[in-house]
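User: Second chain of the day. Same drill as before.
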Amino acid sequence: MKAALVLAPFIVGAALGAAAPAQAQTASTGDRASNTLDLFGVAPSACVLSPPSSAAGTNASFTAQGAQGVVRFTQFIDPQTAQPRDAVISLGFPVVCNSAHRLVVRTDGAGLARTAGPAPAAGFRDSLGFQLSADWAGLTATGPSTSLTPISLQTANGAAGLMNLTVNITGGGAPMVAGDYAGTLVVEIEASN
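Assistant: Same format as last time:
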């Protein structure tokens, strides 16, 4: 960020940069004199994405861990059938962006995958996809976790508020192999200019 304050004929500048001095204009009308005061400032494009400040869900919870967080599914599978259970969590990310910008949510394309173990036996599975939905600045984008194409929202102006990200797991289907499951979501925001 650059800022400068110009007082003719002296220059006082901020440490981050200085502007060219303005031409001094001194007028004298008897016992009165005046100088021109020019003020300069530059506000660069900037975006700030903070960790989620709110979370609400069914069969899921959120725990903040510094700038990151962990979503845990309370009852990932039905203990009688080993089928996944429905789960949903909605996270509110505080965002401030002072120019046109782009919001991107991406996964590794695996959804929730078993972290270790041999291939599943016939009739079982070791990964589970989920649906993503992002709401920001009056726009909505959705997509499956199994896609390598991220969901993206492009805005033409600055915006500030909560970006809502929802993760939705649909239960049922083939049973899940026993083990630990994990997946990763990355949320990015970038100024366009």
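The chain has no helices and 19 strands.

User: Great, on to the next one.
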